[in-house]
Amino acid sequence: MEKLSGGDMLIRALADEGVETVFGYPGGAALHIYDAIFRQDRVKHILVRHEQAATHAADGYARSTGKTGVVLVTSGPGATNAITGIATAYMDSIPMVVISGQVVSDKIGEDAFQETDMVGISRPIVKHSFLVKDQRDIPSIVKKAFYIASTGRPGPVVIDIPKDVTNPVDKFDYEYPSKIKIRSYTPAAKGHAGQIKKAVQLLMSARRPVIYAGGGVVQGNASSQLTELAQILDFPVTNTLMGLGAYPGTDRQFLGMLGMHGTVEANTAMHHADVILAVGARFDDRVTNTPSKFCPAAKIIHIDIDPASISKTISADVPIVGSVESVLDDMLGLVKGGDERPDAGAIKDWWKQIDQWRDRYSIIRKPNFVAEDMIKPQEVVKVLFEVTNGDAYVCSDVGQHQMFSAQYYLFDKPRRWINSGGLGTMGFGLPAAMGVQMAHRDAQVVCVTGEGSIQMCIQELSTCTQYHLPVKIICINNQALGMVKQWQDMQYGGRHSESLYEESLPDFIKLMEAYGHVGMKVTKRDELKAKLEECFAMKDKTVFMDIYVDPKEHVYPMQVPPPNGSMRDMWLSKTERT
Amino acid sequence: MRRRIISLLMENEPGALSRVVGLFSQRGYNIESLTVAPTEDSTLSRLTLTTIGDDHKIEQITKHLNRLVDVVKLVDLTEGAHIERELMLIKVRASGAQRAEIKRCVDIFRGQIVDVTASVYTIQVTGASDKLDAFFQAVGEASIIEVVRTGVSGIGRGEKVLSL
Questions:
Q1: CB contact under 8 A, B10 and A183
Q2: Is A483 a catalytic residue?
């Protein structure tokens, strides 16, 4: 058997696990590991400019491929800088393995240089964590970490490795386990047959059904099953912010996103529904609005791989624990195998009602902005959709631009919409886009951002230079922290406390040029499309489009907040309500 | 709102306990008492905790505990017939006529005096938590000098077992 040092074992184990790309940043406690990386060529390392970006890049890589993202950082500040990205991945259930260097074993607890209790500090935001104490455990711990991160409800796993454990001198037998069993960890697989039968019966009795699909459908690779089921039954579908792309966005049966900034037709249909099929969604507070007023007439079927997500905020009438893919397969089997179908007349009437709401309110049919004076942020997303043929990977930052993208970029495929939905991490967009571009070298990868978010990880422009990542950065520049300002307008009497930068924004064009990229400024509507086309024609360049938009624009529709608002209570504009 | 006794088997590994305890603080649940020790199988620890909550909250607690990778198996003992025990060591002032009075009280509660000085008794009492509470009342708060309670331990009645 081959003998390897701890550091070599770690990198070999990653390679044997099938890892191609690691995002990281070296430092003292990780130097043995970095030396092991230098001496091999199976695992490629991407050097970011800040550890937060390493986690977001690995996250974008994972979201766009379905593979586990891998991060390597050093101890202390390296580890703490990674925390925001780990929390981001945890909230959105993204498979990720984070390897952090640690001070040598006998210095742990002595407040050594660059020491921090990584296992402790990350505990509430990881699925699991390991502190490696012995070189011989490295292969099995790596195997376990990937198994835990990628199965069940996915999530980040931390492996903290003291420096002495990776030393190049001591060598041990290396063998990578082909399989691993953890007695205390058995992720749910198939759903309960009786519950699935009950669910199908309930679907067949539905007169006003809605399918409410979330990120679990994307993560669980069940989009085709979901689409097939919805189309056989002719049921309307709404996706959560995390679920966009799970059902084709341009299809007739798609009602748009639901929730706080969802469409009126999606939220109103949910409110009036008699049966809701919730698939891989978790009834987030940004979806349900006031829980006591949530969908008063609805019987709820809830499919989720995580039992703890079921009946957490809204109680389910037919709970089904299992992987969405397998449960939907079983449901499809029953539906296709039987003759029973929902009452066609009732479903037809339901669509008639929905179409009335659409005629009146749909922002897809009739955009809710007026294309005059300054460019409107919504317009930018609409034109972006046209120019990219609706087929780009869109990585978003957080704020108004994120909501406009979710509303107006209609995703027909899963894993194309990459955003920090749960944690809402500003600074996510650019590094996530780098991770996506690493995984899909020839694809159109867009980072939709604002002049606020982009400055939270703007140092990564340098990483784009080093690795020739031709990400297209669409900066919807409204000269303010737009979402903060919107809430201040709506709820704080227009007092814009610390949401304006005055005259402090950098000249982004010059900044891009300093990094060797291309910067383009757009201020006029009639040049928007041509400039965007020009941007995307530069296939091998990182391009930053600084697009000046109307700073007064708010995101609508917007639900009336709790404790008064139900799903259907929404602001349509600054003056109109449903 | 009911008091529940949740008992679980978890991997006897560093960090496992902090994950269980951390779950309670991070999700805003309450721990009233907690006991933990290795079992006859040294790779497993048995942890028993008492908490208070409505059915919804308890369901969430058990689901989240089950989700922890270190937790192997779990039972809510209060869902069925069970035996609950807690051990208390209590130091009381005992001099003059009080000595006989306290001794009688200890006998009634089937406790034991495990250490004696001229003015102090150290008493051991075992039982369900409410029995220990009742002993407090009987002895009288004024004479109590120090109290140590182990927290609740429990086991299901009859054939029911929590094992692998």
A1: no
A2: yes
Can you give the pLDDT at residue B164? Answer: 87
| Catalytic residue check, A437 | no
> B9 is written with which tokens?
């088997």
Chain A residues near residue B26 by CB distance under 8 angstroms: 124
Judged by a CB distance cut-off of 8 A, whether residue A274 touches chain B is no
Q: What are the boundaries of each domain within chain B? A: 2-80, 83-153
- Cβ within 8 Å, pair A183-B164: yes
What's the confidence (pLDDT) of residue B155? Answer: 97
Which secondary structure element, helix H or strand E, spans residue A72, and what is its range? strand A69-73
Residue with tokens 């609005």: A289
Q: Is the Cβ pair B15, A129 closer than 8 Å?
A: yes
Superfamily name and number for B83-153: ACT-like. Chain A, domain 2 (3.30.70.1150)
Kindly list the residues from chain B whose CB atom is less than 8 angstroms away from the CB atom of residue A148: 69
Does the ipTM surpass 0.85?
yes
Q: Does domain A377-555 have CATH number 3.40.190.290?
A: no
For B117-164, the pLDDT digits (tens) are 999 999 999 999 999 999 999 998 889 999 999 999 999 999 999 998
* Sign of the alpha-carbon dihedral angle for B14, B15, B16, B20: positive
- For residue A44, the model assigns a pLDDT of 98
CA distance B35 to chain A (A): 20
Token pair 């130097």 is at which residue? A31
Contact B56 A311 (CB under 8 A): yes
Instruction: Kindly give, in sequence order, each residue whose CB lies less than 8 Å from that of residue A174, ignoring residues fewer than 6 positions away.
Output: A1, A2, A3, A4, A8, A9, A12, A139
Set of chain B residues whose Cβ sits within 8 Å of the Cβ of A123: 15, 18-19, 22
Q: How far apart are CA B47 and CA B10, in angstroms?
A: 7
Both structure tokens of B150: 């182990």
The topology (CATH level 3) of B2-80 is Alpha-Beta Plaits (3.30.70)
Q: Given A96, A483, A567, A570, which residue is catalytic?
A: A483
Average pLDDT over residues A251-275: 98
Question: CATH fold of A193-361, please?
Answer: Rossmann fold (3.40.50)
Instruction: Kindly report the backbone phi and psi dihedral angles of residue A565, in degrees, each rounded to the nearest multiple of 5, phi listed first.
Output: -85, 135
**CB-CB contact of A25 with A54 (8 Å):** yes
Domain boundaries A3-173, corresponding CATH code: 3.40.50.970
Provide CATH 3.40.50.970 ranges for chain A.
3-173, 377-555
Q: Are A94 and A63 in contact (CB under 8 A)?
A: yes
Catalytic residue at A253?
no
A134 in contact with B at a CB cutoff of 8 Å? no
CB contact B27 to A (< 8 Å): no
Q: What is the pLDDT of residues B97-120, one digit of tens each?
A: 899 999 999 999 999 999 999 999
B72 shares contact with chain A (CB less than 8 Å): yes
Enter the tokens of residue B147: 């109290």
Token pair belonging to B135: 């002993």
Cβ-proximal residues to A424 (8 Å cutoff; 6+ apart), any chain: A398
Q: Chain A partners of B29 at a C-beta cutoff of 8 Å? A: none
Are B73 and B162 spatial neighbours (Cβ–Cβ below 8 Å)? yes
| B2-80 and B83-153, same CATH topology | yes
A1 pLDDT band, cuts 50/70/90, is confident
pLDDT digits (tens, 9 = 90+) for A478-521: 999 999 999 999 999 999 999 999 899 999 999 999 999 999 99
Average pLDDT over residues A411-439: 98
Chain B residue numbers touching A184 (CB-CB < 8 A)? 10-11, 69-72
Q: Where in chain A are all domains bearing CATH 3.40.50.1220?
A: 193-361
Annotated catalytic residue, options A67, A127, A144, A163:
A163
Find the catalytic residue in A9, A17, A51, A242.
A51
Residue B69 contacts A, CB cutoff 8 Å: yes
pLDDT in tens, A212-228: 999 999 999 999 999 99
